[in-house]
Automatic annotation (TrEMBL), chain A:
Protein name stated in the entry: Peptide/nickel transport system ATP-binding protein
Topology within the bilayer: Peripheral membrane protein
Keyword Transit peptide tagged: no
Cellular compartments per GO CC: plasma membrane
Main subcellular localisation: membrane
One example GO MF annotation: ATP binding
TrEMBL record, chain B:
Localization per Swiss-Prot or TrEMBL: Cell membrane
Family annotation (Gene3D superfamilies): MetI-like
Keywords of the record: Cell membrane, Membrane, Peptide transport, Protein transport, Transmembrane, Transmembrane helix, Transport
Predominant cellular place of this UniProt entry's protein: membrane
This protein's name: Peptide/nickel transport system permease protein
Membrane-spanning residues: 14-35, 71-104, 124-148, 196-220, 241-262
InterPro entries, per database record: BP-dependent_transpt_permease (IPR050366), MetI-like (IPR000515), MetI-like_sf (IPR035906), OppC_N (IPR025966)
Membrane topology: Multi-pass membrane protein
From TrEMBL, chain C:
Membrane spanning residue stretches: 12-33, 104-127, 139-168, 188-208, 246-272, 292-315
Name of protein: Peptide/nickel transport system permease protein
Coarse class of the protein's main subcellular location: membrane
Gene3D superfamilies the UniProt entry points to: MetI-like
Domain ABC transmembrane type-1 residues, every copy: 100-315
Matches recorded under InterPro entries: BPD_transp_1_N, MetI-like, MetI-like_sf
Record organism: Pseudaminobacter salicylatoxidans
Amino acid sequence: MSDPLLKIEKLTVALPSAGDRVNAVSDVSLTLDKGEILCIVGESGSGKSITASTVMGLLPSDQLKITGGSVTFDGIDLLALDENGMRKVRGARIGMIFQEPMTSLNPVMKIGRQIEEVMEAHGIAREKRQARAIELLQAVGLPEPEAIAERYPFRLSGGQRQRVMIAMALALEPDMLIADEPTTALDVTTQAQILKLIRDLQRERGMGVLFITHDFGVVADIADRVAVMQKGVVVEVGPASEVLVSPGHPYTKSLIDAVPGFREQASAGSTEAPVLKVSGLRKVYRTGGGLFAVPKEFVAVNDVSFSIARGETLGLVGESGSGKSTIGQCVMRINGIDGGKVEFNGSDIVNASGAALKAYRAQAQMVFQDPFASLNPRHKVGRSIMAGPLAHGVDTATARSRMEQLLKRVGLDASAADRYPHEFSGGQRQRIGIARALAVEPDLLVADEAVSALDVSVQAQVLDLLREIRDEFHLAMLFITHDLRVASQICDRVIVLHRGRIVEEGEVTNVFGDPQDSYTRNLLAAVPGQKWHRGEQQALPA
Amino acid sequence: MNASLRRFLTNPKAVVGLVILMLVVLAAIFAPVIFPRNPWQMASRPFLPPFQDAKFWLGTDMLGRDILAGLAYGAQISLIVGVASTVVAVVVGVLFGAMAGYYGGFVDDALMRVTEFFQTIPTFVFALLLVAILSPSVMSIIIAIGVVSWPPVARLVRSEFASLRSRDFVKAAVVLGQSNRQIIFSQILPNTMSPVIAMASLMVASAILTEAAISFLGLGDPNMMSWGYMVGAARTVIRQAWWMSFFPGIVILLVVLALNLVGEALNDVLNPRLARKGRQ
Amino acid sequence: MSSPLRAVLSRLVKSVAVVLAIVLLNFLLIRLAPGDPASVMAGQAGAADQQFMDQLREQFGLDKSIYEQAWIYLKGIAQGDLGFSYRQNTAVWQLIAERLPATLLLTVSAFIFALIAGVVMGAIAAMNAGRSLDFIISVVSLVFYATPLFWIGLMSILLFSVYLGWLPAFGMMTVGAGYTGWDHVLDVARHLVLPATTLGLFYMAVYARMTRASMLEVRDMDFVRTARAKGLKSGPIVRRHILRNAILPIITLAGIQAGQLVGGAILTETVFGWPGIGRLAFDALLQRDYQVLLGVFLITSVMVVIFNIITDLIYRVVDPRMGASA
């Protein structure tokens, strides 16, 4: 058998001192053949992206140092190359695409020019470049390539920009493509399209692809082989079909178990009278008004109605721009509304002010998406949790004891109260956020993408916690998410939103099991790893 | 805070800056003790060059006044004007910026138009006009410099407020039912203070420069000796007595440099993210 | 209306509003001054006799209501009447018009010098961040940032005129030499070197520090990593990707700082006896000739407004995103 295209042997990359770990990556050995897709999968901090950057020679050399091992690409020792030698490999023989399509393109350079730059850097004659750039834009499925080539990046959507990145990476027909979480920042339907594009191009050109991801669904859809990384070490490598179905390493197994799938069993639901009633909700954003400009209007939410009872979880699902988060903010009175009604226990919320609004603030609470932004960095955790009760006139001693109880309830030590947010992990902060919301003893909890920023294993734990507290405190819960699998796990009923409108609603297993609307069907079809999920369920004993 | 303080005090920029500032503050405080004679009075023969008479190290001016004494007394007005006008500017700027950034919409528009207006007019010319019209005194100089230097603070605080306003922890405070006052002062303001403090130390520096320039043009407080006045008075005799303008200028340079060093060190310590970028 | 045109129009309307506000501020400043506005306008030290004062009272309607006074003042300005200097017995507008070209020559040369030198220094420092060249440039720009402009002027006279005798220290041309043609241009240029450099050094330091910081920030951005992944050489990466984006905040800053540049011109012209409006303002300051001071304030403000419009237009050309968001 011939040598592999890429051979990483015993690669070790040291972290700057004072970390809790010595190496970002230690003793990693991997191979990639021509025409093969190897997925490196792992949670944040596993070293998967650092491994990819090392191959490309893009490590920030002032922070991370390679202390051992070798990387051989098509017989070339990449680590031994000088900057100029490496430069000739980059773009020409190895292409790379990144996670953030929104920021990965130069904002002040035309798309066509950015693609031509790769060819210019590797000595393709000027006359050929333009035609080739158009050809590439066409190959990655962009409409009107001539027009796109003349545009600046800000006119393109995230998915389109990622296609441009792919066009750029493939401009010189490289032997290998490195894709570092290329679909993580994209909506699920866009993700499905980009995954298909990468797979098609890879087959067509026989490239080797090193694909970095945290999502086992994506792995199932695209990988030939999988390497699972944990804390800088490869714990398991093997064909995707084996690793996903019968994982050998306990860590792999725990990760796969934590991946949410679609629930089969219908939920019992709640028979109580609704506490929150939203009818005909409409929200319009106006931007760019001025002396000589008519403000542009964007209807974020259009004629949305729903209600939630205590003990029930209603899911709002949709892609970015669907209006799901806006609805949550309208319900919480963070945003005003432009039409419709929001009623809580029969009283109007939209026009509530003074004491009525304050009373509502004690009854409806919210858990936010970003665990790093949702706690005041300058307040100790205890103070953050007590702020709510204190604002509502609870005395300090009661607030303190409630805070301590809640910290324990969400699985943290009472000593956490005297520490600052930066001392906690993302999952712990999310627990603190939940404790803060519960401290005012609400009836309604709005969770806005509350688990989206968390690693999959932590995500499962926080979902369990939310489910438990909903039952324990008998809460009505509005659960906003872009992830259909997560929604299926925790919601009783679900509403599917598209461009501010409700396209479908109903009991969660009905909606996801037998979707009636074509948009819902598209959305469901785009969820990665479905065949694998189904196969897995068949494999399980009935 | 303790760790930050230690990092600040071990920062070489901070050490150099603080040592210079300490000397200047001591000179300002003890000027009447070290140089009991009124700095406006004749002390020795006119145009005494420096380093010739041990009693008048830095020489004398055209009226025989002691340059070194003038420098010590000049420190007083520089420090008073620098600090007081910065306090004025920071208070106005924080107030404007906080309101604009927090409330947004119409309030923001109105306040920012005012801020832009004050940023458009030539600040130094405006300050001169104010001092001339209010008649020169320490007070009018402080007011004039304060009035022209608050816009950058307002812009900084506004952008910090606007960005923090949309942060989840502020939304959480709204949802928890905290009052606007509580949110502004306890949630947001403390998070904007580090850049404001760093900016304030740079503003003291530029206020000292502006005061010196105003005095240089002859609009200083006629009752107080000032570095700018000394350079201004020396302007016409520069060919005969280089030292008359040289030493006051050097002192201004050192003090302003020291304040800038302290400001940069504060930035390094208080805004580590930006500073790290700077150092890479 | 197309969006760039609309943007320019709204910018112009805004500028007119700013100029109007400055005129009103001017009007208020006269009233703010202690004492009788007429005597203030005539020059505090009493240059004018009773007849002048009465004439002034009538001309400005000082016996009428404050609104009418404001209207009269505004009308006067709109007709190009900036008032009359009783000290110099000349219309303020004429005094300013005679000296404006000299100030423009000085400030524009200083600005161009500051911008080019500052951006180049900042870029070199950023590209050598952490090395000794960066340290040297940072120290040099910090020192010039901290040095009083008028003192640099005096010291450069001392060094380059008095001791070395290389360059003239005073005025805009050699008095009585009667140069014509190229000789005249050269003569003015020789006189320009010291004042323009003096005025420019501070701003050079400002731009150098700003460019360095901005480039270091852009250097860590995702699209620069993309450029490296494409296999670009470091030259094009720095020029097309880093510098091209880092320059954007500098343009904004340059617009904001135009006002300070004019302020600096007062000091520079005073030190070097440069016959511009700064020198005029200094003389007016000594004589408390408020009419002239206010006129200079108004004209320099209008200059800043014009400069802001220019930088705004440049920004629109340089940043493609601007056209669309408006």
